Amino acid sequence: MIGMVSNVTISKLRPTRWALLPLAALACAAVAQTGQSDDEGPSNGLNIPADVIVFGKNDPSIRKPTAIVNGDIITRTDVEQRLALIVSASGGQIPAEEIERLRRQVLRNLIDEALEIQEAKGNKIEITPQQIDESFARVARNFKRTPEEMAAYLDKIGSSAASLKRQIHGELAWNRLLQRRIQPFVNVSQEEVQGIIDRLEASKGATEARIGEIFLSSTPETEAATIENARKIMEAIKQGGSFVAYARQYSQASTAAVGGDLGWVRPEQLPDALANEARAMTIGQMAGPIPVPGGVSILYMIDKRQVLTADPRDAVLALRQLSIAFPPGTTQEQASQRAAQFAAATHTIAGCGSAQKVAEQVGAEMVDNDQVKVRDLPVQLQEMMLGLQVGQASPPFGSVQDGVRVLVVCGRDDPQAAQGPNAETIMAQLEEQRVNMRAQRYLRDLRRDAVVDYR
Prior knowledge:
single chain; 11 strands; Triger factor/SurA peptide-binding fold; four-stranded antiparallel sheet; Chitinase A, domain 3; periplasm; 455 residues; 3 domains; alpha+beta; Parvulin-like PPIase; 17% strand
């Protein structure tokens, strides 16, 4: 499912130890030690002979885009409208050859969604139209639209308000069911929580990373094809696609519902193959495909920090921005000349007080923002801004299309010593992780018992 309704999403996929990592630092390792479950059955349990003869024909060119799930119909329109949501969330950057594979994944998601809604209804859990409409309105506000404007936007991209509301219905129903059937029976002891806190303190200063992952399961026989699929996904992301959107749709890890975000982890908490890559990655870098037990992974380095240590990038800056735009038709040479004049003028800035005068001289637009975290700036600007003193201006940056900007530091609030997660936060995260693991098994059982007629 896509990320448009993240406030009601529960993770529910791959049951491997190292993929279930929502806790900071050593919290993940503590859970990993107890996370091995009976989900991981023997790979040879079916006793399939080495030499087989296939009776009948399976034509991969014939697709079945619709299904009846325990009597509930999923139509081609349902699939196409949900597919349009995902394509839009990816900025329309999905290669044409990937669309068919994505369409099949959407159908699987819709089948799971139908099973979740049916199971909730069977447990006398009803989601009212008003609750769905309220969630839809929150999504619309996230897009800075009214519900009516959001509905019009969805129609424009080939989807519909009904499709998104169906997704909201499924997630609300599944969450409510888990709250009733699973959460009351999940327990975390104070000793477990205290053990995590003690280990966090002991590891103070160690480097940890916030990593995104897309995991694609495979067998030895399908590994080559899976690696090729992973390469195609990486290429699409490099061409401007959203890592989060691809993770939500393609990843078979439990973290798919949160865009592949593993949370804050130390490299040694990951399998060796992933740990080796993570240690060498820089912020914003992607690595893969990486063979791991059960499949292959794609990693994305979201951020890095040191455990319980103040991060300079958490400094809050008061900035004054001066910017100039180029009229349509401006050539690169003309833009370079204008940018050079702008750079010469802004080089004379000596404090925010003089920035106003310089802006008037060069015809620049001026905007102030006194609550900018360094880590929220583009990666290319972060180190540069950390090196500036109050009153200094950055070198000009920009492009012919976007214009040229200069940032003047008017003030700085340096970060205080970092604080680790408190006991309540750790306990809540451990409980959520265990709920997610049981939810995965619950959904697996629903799939096993379902009657699904493909049309």
